[in-house]
């Protein structure tokens, strides 16, 4: 068994080097396929992170009249915090709202002059509400129509972040479709190259195969080198991909993080945590696909 395995491995390596340029082309196409697949994963991670960041910043500001009683405000806060869709409620007092307004418009002389003419704080307390999901705000706005405090509410301000999320998702979906089509094209070309590589290998080794038959070699021993060669090519392709993807992520991530402010896109962390699953799955998929192409070529040209 050991001798047979050694010989199969030896023949597989010989096939690889004898058809080096075809093997190199096959390897290149598999690399391009893996590159597009991992690009799709990077895109998904960045998109999910961007949407999560946008949703985290979505908030609903509820402005109360300055005459609102403390008990009414407390009742509204307790009611909102009791809703499962509400993640957090921040209370901004009238004085805090006044100071924030001054800080925002300190360079606007006209607004500051108008504020001084009033001679008093025109602001009432404000509630800043954050929801678990963007879609929950519609329900929260409806819930604010509670008769206990609806008459004390002067205004509700909700920026429509839903359209931003939908726009990000729409752009990402179009890019994903393009990347998937590109990956399928590369994969199809790789399968054709594998098919022809095996066909040429069978032609080159036709004398050796004939001798193997004469000395009683079984079908497995004749077919195994071609299958093992494709496993070797798939392994090299995944290995090169791993060697390239992590340095690339180290270079790319700081550029992507610029758009996320103080937070990180988490690309390197994602591939580190899921590397075994990602690259193990890609290797297994390549082996299966190349085995199918190799099997079809052997069935057509290798009569054993």
From TrEMBL:
It is found in: Cell membrane. Residues 58-145 form the FtsX extracellular domain. Gene3D superfamilies: 3.30.70.3040. Coiled coil: none annotated. The chain crosses the membrane at residues 20-43, 177-205, 226-252, 276-298. One of its GO terms (cellular component) is plasma membrane. Keywords: Cell cycle, Cell division, Cell membrane, Membrane, Transmembrane, Transmembrane helix. Its main location: membrane. Pfam families: FtsX, FtsX_ECD. It comes from the Bacteria. One of its GO terms (biological process) is cell division. Residues 180-300 form the ABC3 transporter permease C-terminal domain. It is a multi-pass membrane protein. Belongs to the ABC-4 integral membrane protein family. FtsX subfamily. This is Cell division protein FtsX.
């Amino acid at each position: 068994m050991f001798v047979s395995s050694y010989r199969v491995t030896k023949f597989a390596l010989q096939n690889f080097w004898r058809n080096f340029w075809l093997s190199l082309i096959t390897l290149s196409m598999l690399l391009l396929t893996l590159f597009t697949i991992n690009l799709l994963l990077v895109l998904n991670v960045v998109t999910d992170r961007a949407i999560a960041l946008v949703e985290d910043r979505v908030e609903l500001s509820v402005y109360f009249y300055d005459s609102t009683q403390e008990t009414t405000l407390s009742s509204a806060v307790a009611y909102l915090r009791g809703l499962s869709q509400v993640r957090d409620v921040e209370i901004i007092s009238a004085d805090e709202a006044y100071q924030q307004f001054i800080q925002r418009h300190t360079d606007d002389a006209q607004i500051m002059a108008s504020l001084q003419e009033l001679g008093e704080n025109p602001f009432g307390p404000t509630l800043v509400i954050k929801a678990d999901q963007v879609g929950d705000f519609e329900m929260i706005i409806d819930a604010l129509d509670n008769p206990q405090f609806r008459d004390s509410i002067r205004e509700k301000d909700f920026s429509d972040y839903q359209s931003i999320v939908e726009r990000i998702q729409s752009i990402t979906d179009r890019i994903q479709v393009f990347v998937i089509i590109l990956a399928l094209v590369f994969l199809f070309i790789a399968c054709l190259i594998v098919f022809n590589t095996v066909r040429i290998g069978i032609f080159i080794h036709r004398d050796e195969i004939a001798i193997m038959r004469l000395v009683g070699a079984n079908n497995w021993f004749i077919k195994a080198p071609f299958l093992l060669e494709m496993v070797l090519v798939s392994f090299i392709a995944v290995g090169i991909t791993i060697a390239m993807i992590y340095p690339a992520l180290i270079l790319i991530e700081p550029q992507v993080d610029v758009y996320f402010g103080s937070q990180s896109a988490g690309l390197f962390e994602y591939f580190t945590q899921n590397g075994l699953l990602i690259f193990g799955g890609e290797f297994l998929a390549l082996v299966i696909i190349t085995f199918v192409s190799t099997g079809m070529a052997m069935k057509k040209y290798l009569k054993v």
